[in-house]
Amino acid sequence: PGGPRYTNRLINEKSPYLLQHAHNPVDWYPWGQEAFDKAKKENKLIFLSVGYSTCHWCHVMEEESFKNKEIGEIMSKNFVCIKVDREERPDVDKVYMTFVQATSGGGGWPMSVWLTPDLKPFAGGTYFPPDDRVYRVGFRTLLLRIAEQWNQNKDALLENSQKIMEALQIQARIRGQAQESPPPSEEVMALCFQQLSKSYDEEYGGFSEFPKFPTPVNLNFLFTYWALHRSTPEGARALQMALHTLRMMACGGIHDHIGQGFHRYSTDQQWHVPHFEKMLYDQGQLVTAYTRAFQISGDEFFADVAGDILLYVSRDLSDQAGGFYSAEDADSYPTAASAEKREGAFCVWTAEEIRALLPDPVEGAAEGTTLGDVFMHHYGVKEDGNVSPEKDPHGELRGKNVLMSRSSPERTAARFGLPRGRLGALLHRGRHQSLAPRPLPEPVPVACAGLMISGFAQAGAVLAKEEYVRRAARAAAFLQRHLFDAASGRLLRSCYRGEDNAVEQGAVPIQGFLEDYVFVIQALFDLYEASLDQGWLEWALQLQHTQDKLFWDPKGFAYFFSEAGDPSLLLRLKDDQDGAEPSANSVTVMNLLRAACYSGHMEWVEKAGQILAAFSERLLKIPIALPEMARASAAFHHTLKQVVICGDPQGEDTKDLLRCVHSVFCPNKV
Questions:
Q1: Spermatogenesis-associated protein 20-like TRX domain: which residues (predicted)?
Q2: Which residue in 611, 628, 640, 657 sits closest to 176, CA to CA?
Q3: Which is more confidently placed, 193 or 364?
């Protein structure tokens, strides 16, 4: 009595996402041999569901379908049901997402895929509603239809899955030839710039209508393009596109004006109504982008936004042992007494709530003006809410406001007859008084931590904030202590917060993937350049050797995402797209060039060229898919500038020289 009615074997897992499903009335298995053996022994199809713990639509599908007793019975009777946390097993996620994207033209999470007993996919999609709707088949109907197909047309289904697999293997092949040269960097850079320029939103910034993602890879490309063409009209446009996008995002609702940090993406063109989860990998990359914007423009606005992100990460996504949590959930409780979570509840406001929180009169303004009045005007708060119904399909935001800087500080100050300096202090006070307790974030995978360490290290160097560099070093020490096996020289994928906040591993620790190595190596180079502590440089070079041994493709060149030798993985893939995060091969090109400069191992330069050659066709046709690699191709062709500073590391004159170097945006240097 009082306990859960159902418990399945996911109760024995460490992943927060798998544990969320441990009390579903579904006979869930984790990805592993026990599930595969059952499918073969009973000749049953597999239903594979992939998601992650902070994903809003994953929560919706669980509430609607996986907690439904009748649907749970259909699933358990007809299928071996497997749950995968994509934060733990990105390799499994990538294989089946390749299939879903190729067959449905789209992808996302939750990902729902049906497999034959030998793990070959034949049907799939993302979120399905529980029952049939006007334009969508329901999950219940799909389960019954697929089970019937398996019983009546097994041979045709198996033959179809084999054909699909063969097509995917051809599609996923990325190879270079032994003597092939990298594509000409000028051509690649020029075409990438043209393609970004064509897709650019002149009014609101960004590179699509909606949904709109921050995509820092595009902004970093534009900064590098400007640095190489700064005296040309194209260079000026590249800089304008990047700075305008960053400014519009910071003013928009995708930026949490009260709790700090950035949400994952905007559902509209204006950056107004976000999808409310916050990912660590976005914070890490956006800190770097805003820091570079300040470095180039000298505008304190960008430095303030970078500081805002780092404040959020330090407060809400930092573990006391020094690590980082991976994300903050999209869904939260509207009040301390609420029993049910809602999307974005912590981040939206009614006009009434703002008035109650900010009742103080404002000196110097018209009589009767309160801090709430000034705050509501500046952030576009309306009495009946500022979210349009089409951006609120579930009606969860009715009457609510997503804060957005609708007015410039000058206009708001003029409206209330206030000096501009006074307005800044008032808005700061209003934000501080509105800050609610934050939801508990989830434990971190190491890949995300690499990007965040880079963010802290680069911001510390450019903004001359030693505390940021110290925070980066603390996080790197956490990785070395908890996510690195010194005996084998290998990284582990993730760790978890156990009882009494102890750091724990799963029963069978998951080995690191290519992206883990790549982002950590990049972070260690950034941390070395910010701190000049040689230990970080030595560890980076050691990890680069390990990465070469585990993931390099000696026949087709470039690096595979996962190690060889896992029979449950039908494809060894090489990422060919820079998306929300840059692809591992893109970042590796720059890592290899830096490693060669520091160590003198020139075979790493050769490897960088072979990666560019392997992706040559894509870089020459659609470089907009690989802006980070396009940027790295420029570094490969121009060679890196080496800056050497001689002097006492603690001497003020040495520090002055370092500050001078860090104050200038020079993308291709060590």
A1: 7-169
A2: 611
A3: 193
**Alpha-carbon gap, residue 406 to 53, rounded angstroms:** 33
Over 60: is that where the pLDDT of 438 sits? no
The single residue listed with the structure tokens 């595969």 is 36
User: What is the rounded CA–CA span in Å between residue 547 and residue 490?
Assistant: 9
DSSP code for 210: S
Domains along the chain with CATH numbers:
10-172 (3.40.30.10), 185-332+441-663 (1.50.10.10), 347-434 (no CATH)
End-to-end CA distance of the chain: 64
Q: Per residue in 291-311, is it b (16+ CB within 10 Å) or e — as a string?
A: bbbbbbbeeebbbebbbbbbe
In this structure, the dihedral spanned by the alpha carbons of residues 295, 299, 300 and 301, taken in order and rounded to 10 degrees, is -110
The strand pairing partners of 559, in sequence order, are: 552
- The whole-chain average pLDDT of the chain stands at 92
The rounded Cα 65 to chain-centroid distance in angstroms is 27
Least confident of 35-39, 47-51, 200-204, 347-351: 347-351
The reported pTM is 0.94
Q: Is 281 left (phi over 0), alpha (psi -120 to 50) or beta?
A: alpha
The residue count for the chain: 670
Determine the pLDDT at residue 445. 62
